[in-house]
User: Fold Tryptophan-rich sensory protein from Mycolicibacterium obuense.
Amino acid sequence: MPSKTLAKTAGAALATAVVGGLASRPAQSPWYTRLKKPSFQPPAQAFPIVWPILYTDIAVVSASTIDALHEQGRHAEARSYSRALAANLVLNAGWSWIFFNQRRLGTAAVAAAALAASSTDLARRAASVQPAAGAALAPYPLWCGFATALSTRIWQLNR
Assistant:
C-alpha cells in the first residue's frame, strides 16, 4: 500500500482522535460522574485502549481499500469510499462533542446509531473490495453498536 494513502487516512484518524479526545475531557467532570450508568458500562481504562486500536484499524483498512480500488481502476468508488470515511470520522468526533460538551444525551444516542450505521457501511465497502479487510474492520461497527446501546441506556437512565 502506498505510504501516501496511509499517511492521509492515518492523519484523518489521528485528527478524529484528537478532536474526540478534547471533547471527552469532561468525562472526569462532576456532571459525568453523577450520571447514572448501566451495569455494562466498561471501566474508564477500556476507552483509551480500545479507541487507538480501532483508529489504527480504520486507517490501515481504509488506505488498503482506497489503494485497491485505484489499482482496479475503480476511481469513482475510491472517491466514494473516501467521502464515506470522512463522514464517518466527522460522526465519530461529533459524538463526543454532543455527549460531553453539549450534554445532549438523546441526540448523542441518535448520533451513536448513525455512527454505527456508517461504520457498518465502511466495513461492507471494504469487504466488497477485499474480504479480509472487511473482516479486519468488523470490530469497529461492533464497538459502535455497543456504544449505541450504552449511549441509549445512559440517556434512558438520566432523563
About this structure: DSSP finds seven helices and no strands in the chain. The mean pLDDT is 95. The chain has one domain: 3-32+45-157. Helices lie at 3-23, 30-34, 47-71, 75-101, 105-129, 131-137, 139-157.
